Every structure is written in structure tokens, then in C-alpha cells.
Amino acid sequence: MGTIRDRGIIKGQAALMLPEHKALNKKKDEDDYFLNKKPVLDEYQVEEYENNIHYAMEYHLPISLS
Known about the structure:
By secondary structure, the chain is mostly helical.
């Protein structure tokens, strides 16, 4: 009996890469560069947000997150 050999990542890659494809990939990478990144929050900021949400839920107050 033969064993099944998986090609892994290779099967997801295109066999032919045209210059148009390369240009689209480069444009996509540039667009991703300008996306807003998530802020890095320390424990105090996370706790402050959790307390505000808890307070709003307890007293049925509207909140908005941005």
C-alpha cells in the first residue's frame, strides 16, 4: 500500500505569477500598511474599560466604543 503525500503549502501557491499578479500583491501590501492598528493597552486601561462597561450594564446606561 502506498502512502498519501501531502504537498503542504505548495498546493496553495499559484503555478504561474504574472507581472499583474505581482503588482496586485504589492498594492495589497501597501494598503495593509495604512490600516489602523489596534492600540496596545496596559492592564490599568483594560481594567478601566471593564469597570465602565460593568457600571453601564448595571445601571442600564448607554455607552459607545470606538
